[in-house]
Amino acid sequence: MLPCPFSPGGPLTKREQTWLRIVRAAQALCLDRGFDGFTLDELAEASDVSRRTLFNYFPSKVDAVLGGGETPDLLHPDPRQPHLVEATELFRRGGPHGRLLEDLTALSRVLVDGAHPDRSLARSQRAILFATPRLLGEVHERFLAAAGTLVALVREREPELDEGRGRLFVRLLVAVFDNAVETWVEQPDDDPRTLADVFETHLEDAVHLLHP
Amino acid sequence: MLPCPFSPGGPLTKREQTWLRIVRAAQALCLDRGFDGFTLDELAEASDVSRRTLFNYFPSKVDAVLGGGETPDLLHPDPRQPHLVEATELFRRGGPHGRLLEDLTALSRVLVDGAHPDRSLARSQRAILFATPRLLGEVHERFLAAAGTLVALVREREPELDEGRGRLFVRLLVAVFDNAVETWVEQPDDDPRTLADVFETHLEDAVHLLHP
DNA sequence: ATTCTGCACTATTTCTACAAGAGTGCAAAA
DNA sequence: TTTTGCACTCTTGTAGAAATAGTGCAGAAT
């Protein structure tokens, strides 16, 4: 029932327009009054749909403000998100390069960027996260869940990676991600780097730091 | 005013005896009734000191239960803990081996083991952490603080490590530590590995996972 | 001389009940 | 097929009171 954030290319469908209208209103309200400073009734009014319809688009207030879809499950990617299906299939077959870390980086990029269908949304998202540290926790949780499925996928490709190491791997990825988010959120407004860019840089940094 | 957990070797001083009595009582109460199931008045009575004296030994209830001293500052180590002073001095001068990762492992060991002066304490600590997940958060915070000073020390030795990477490094260490704690806590009761052992193993695992 | 203790104090936390808002199920309307 | 209204549950915030955590200090005890 919940839609993917955007179908690529072409004019926006009616549903996509409504989706955008809601997110924009939610972000405006959030920037204006803070996350707890507005109710869903107000958001419904501001975006010109019924309160009930909001939940037709977003499972929660947080999702509306963050403009996120469901957290992707890379093990069983949603067929409505063909780029996800494609990327995971490629990875399963030995990834774009054949070296785990690089392939993982590529896959992470798909994952991280999935939350940012639109440049202008990304920008206000940054402002909101900056103003509402509480939401950082939510972002963390979402990535944590996604990273779990990511590592599950890795373990299919690399069976010698046992569960314990998999868990550790998740934690490392999440640590890099959290750091990337923190950096990205504090970035000056005209810095063009996306969250995925920063994540990739930090992942490389992590590799160097732990290089024997 | 607060003492180091133990002076090495020899018979226990009066202060050390009292320290132990308090910790034992605190752990017993905690295992028996849960962390929130007893008051400091009760702990005072059980360990035969006045309530006020408890705070002479531990800055908080959590510290009493965990049997921890202050979180060590590796940049300015407490002179009353000579092994810390020694280890940091050695590290500053180029560490035991001269390779950052190995020296870091050695230093981390000192840090992690510092919280476990005694085998039997470590064992009940494990049981308590298992039964009271809430305390895991406290343990995390303590290590986070300590890791901060650890990385500050590293940055003195390796000036090309900028602040951003330092922050990332802290996060990675904390991730490894959290994973180690989780593993250690779930360990069967007769498993002789200390937390520091597990931490070291996981740090090595992390290095391999991020090996290009 | 140092550590312990009682006591008076402040600061958090917990509890209760209640209100407000988040989130769901369903059937009729668009 | 999507939207909407409505009735519903569940979680979270609020306010005030009680319990408990934690502090400062001066005198007692060792």
Can you tell me the residue ranges of chain A where pLDDT is under 50 for at least 5 consecutive residues?
none
* Number of E strands of chain A: 0
Give the CA-based shape of chain A.
globular
Which structural class fits the helix and strand makeup of chain A? mainly alpha
What is the helix content of chain A?
55-70%
Which fold name fills CATH's third level, the topology of the largest domain in chain A? Tetracycline Repressor, domain 2
Main sheet characteristics of chain A: none
Number of helices of chain A: 10
Oligomer: homodimer
**Radius of gyration computed on alpha carbons of chain A:** 18 Å
Number of domains of chain A: 2
CATH domain class name of the largest domain in chain A: Mainly Alpha
Provide the succession of SSEs of chain A: HHHHHHHHHH
Indicate the proportion of strand residues of chain A.
under 5%
CATH architecture level-2 label of the largest domain in chain A: Orthogonal Bundle
Distance, first to last CA of chain A? 49 Å
Largest interface: pair, residues per side:
A-B, 24 and 24 residues
**Nearest-integer average pLDDT of chain A:** 90
Report on this structure.
- Two copies of one chain form a homodimer.
- With 212 residues, chain A is mostly helical.
- Chain A has helices spanning 14-33, 40-47, 51-57, 61-66, 82-92, 100-114, 119-131, 133-157, 163-186, 195-209.
